[in-house]
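Thread amino acids onto this structure.
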């Protein structure tokens, strides 16, 4: 009979946690319902001021195994590449360029493209490569 007369030293916190969760829910609902935006008349801008500001688009120059040069997947010669890059540099001084050359390509083709980039004062040049297959 000693077990039925023993006092419990534990406090049951489940009803207290339930009460806190209900109070938290009420608080969240009341704060989101109470926050409302202030209505204002926004000024309008002219169409010339609303020109879309674009990031400089990266130009991709690809040299395939046969030595053919492509600017953004369009075949070009070195002279055409030079004139198109001059037009791009005239529009935006910092034109980013990525040069992609086939692994079996002759090094001279890539050097010709880099020479054209240098003549046009393009300094943001990236050389595309693949990660080594060894996992390192």
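Threaded sequence (136 positions):
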């Amino acid at each position: 009979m000693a077990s039925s007369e023993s006092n419990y030293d534990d406090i049951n916190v489940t009803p207290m946690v339930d009460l806190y969760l209900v109070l938290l829910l009420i608080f969240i609902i009341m704060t989101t319902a109470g926050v409302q935006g202030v209505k204002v008349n926004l000024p309008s801008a002219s169409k010339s001021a609303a020109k879309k500001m674009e990031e400089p688009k990266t130009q991709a120059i690809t040299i395939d195994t046969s030595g053919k040069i492509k600017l953004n997947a369009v075949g070009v010669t070195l002279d055409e590449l030079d004139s198109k890059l001059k037009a791009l540099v005239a529009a935006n001084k910092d034109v980013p360029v990525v040069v992609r050359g086939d692994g079996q390509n002759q090094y001279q083709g890539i050097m010709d493209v880099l020479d054209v980039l240098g003549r046009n004062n393009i300094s943001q040049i990236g050389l595309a490569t693949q990660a080594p297959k060894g996992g390192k």
